[in-house]
Specification:
Elements lengths: L2 H13 L1 H24 L3 H17 L1 H12 L4 E6 L2 H11 L5 E4 L3 H5 L2 H7 L3 E4 L2 H9 L15 H12 L6 H18 L2 E4 L3 E3 L5 E5 L3 H7 L3 E7 L3 E2 L2 H15 L6 E5 L10 E7 L20 H5 L1 H6 L9 H11 L2 H8 L7 H5 L6 H9 L4
Parallel strand pairs: 1-10, 2-3, 2-4, 4-7, 5-8, 7-10
Antiparallel strand pairs: 5-6, 6-9
The structure holds iron/sulfur cluster.
The site of iron/sulfur cluster has 15 residues, from helix 13.
């Protein structure tokens, strides 16, 4: 995206009064919830430091970390793939999933990063996002506004307009929307050929996949279909299962959840229950070679910095491409385009609020400065 295109997108968002009001209310609420969650869990700041140290160890030599995880993960009916580029990942998916298949999918930022859903649809695969927010994004054919709450900026009225024709009934309020989608999805879960999930963390000692959800869709997605596909990226590897559990707990707390509802740990297929085979695809997409912006890989995608950002508070998803707000700028430079990242960087106020709230203490303003100064 050019500077002009970003500017236009932001001006358009500023003119939408309902979106501005919705964003302000949502961000205020999230900040309150995060403070409460951190205060409730007295260990949260210590754990955040442990997670940063554990992650730094693995990022020091990502190639060896990938190899360690691969060895621990592979086994009977457990297949590991490394995708250097988005196209590699898509090719692997096209090999595994044949056109005409049905896939139920849990939320994944890696999937968004490479526009996997759009690829699968164009490949003749029926895909259903099972996270409610992500399902709304799919129906609206939009990009997520936030890493954790993709449809945070969507009004109730718009959600109703999108859901009613699909669910096939009148949805009067938020509760009826949730229950309507739940009923609609149940049938699809039982007939799906594949489940697809992202991972919030991977452990190099046990080869486990750890992911968290609040809606229970992750449990159904990962256990009902006969085949499970995990799509994730190289910076999610932690030395031990304990580190990985600390990481997902820290992510949930700093996302503003006092308690995340479900923490899933997948260790393998089981002959009688759940999927009979698991395919795990680990994406690089510019992460391994990006020494100048390497600090970005410490990000655990809690989204706290997005809600703390004064620009995001008024225009939310309009400031960004896939990864929005300040941390979205180095993520965009690494995984998408340096030109787009520079265009986005021009709108950063350099207030430093993002650095203040980040559990990994990432110096986001410095990363943005490097991008602006064309040092990367
Ligand atoms: S940069 Fe820090 S605050 Fe922002 S999403 Fe990543 S870990 Fe969370």
């Amino acid at each position: 995206m050019s500077y002009k295109q970003v500017h236009k997108k932001i001006l358009k968002a500023l003119k939408k009064e309902d979106l501005r009001k919705g964003s302000e209310a949502a961000t205020k609420d999230e900040l309150k919830k995060r403070k409460y969650a951190i205060a409730t869990h007295k260990y949260s700041l210590d754990w955040a430091e442990d997670v940063k140290n554990a992650k730094s160890t693995m990022l020091f030599d990502v190639v060896s970390s990938v190899e360690k995880f691969r060895k621990a993960f592979e086994g009977k009916n457990k297949y590991f793939y490394f995708a250097r580029t988005p196209q590699d990942l898509k090719n692997i998916i096209a090999e595994i999933i044949k056109p005409g298949s049905t896939v139920v999918k849990s939320k994944s930022m890696v999937g968004e990063e490479i526009e996997l859903r759009q690829f699968m649809e164009s490949h003749g695969i029926k895909i259903y996002e099972t996270d409610l927010g992500e399902f709304l994004i799919q129906l609206a054919n939009e990009k997520p506004a936030h890493m954790v709450t993709p449809a945070v900026n969507m009004s109730e009225e718009r959600a109703r307009q999108l859901l009613e024709p699909v669910v096939g009934e009148k949805l009067n309020d938020v509760t009826s929307m949730v229950l309507g989608v739940r009923k609609f999805m149940r049938k699809i879960f039982f007939s799906a050929d594949f489940g697809m999930v992202g991972a919030n963390a991977l452990s190099a000692d046990t080869g486990s996949v750890i992911f968290i959800t609040n809606e229970g869709n992750g449990a159904l997605t990962s256990t009902l279909p006969d085949k499970l596909i995990v799509i994730t990226s190289v910076e999610k590897i932690y030395p031990t299962l304990l580190d990985a559990i600390k990481a997902v707990t820290t992510q949930a707390i700093f996302s503003g959840f006092e308690y995340t509802t479900y923490v899933h740990i997948i260790n393998g297929p089981y002959d009688f229950y759940g999927p009979k085979e698991i395919h795990l695809i680990l994406l690089d997409n510019g992460r391994i070679r990006n020494d100048d912006l390497k600090e970005t890989l410490l990000c655990i995608k809690c989204g706290a910095c997005q809600f703390a950002c004064p620009v995001f508070q008024v225009v939310d998803g309009a400031w960004g491409y896939i990864y929005t707000a300040a941390i979205g700028i180095p993520w965009t430079a690494i995984t998408n385009s340096k030109e787009t990242a520079r265009s986005l960087a021009a709108f950063c106020l350099e207030c430093g609020k993002c650095r203040e709230v980040c559990p990994m203490k990432i110096d986001i303003p410095e990363l943005i400065r490097k991008i602006k100064a064309e040092e990367v």
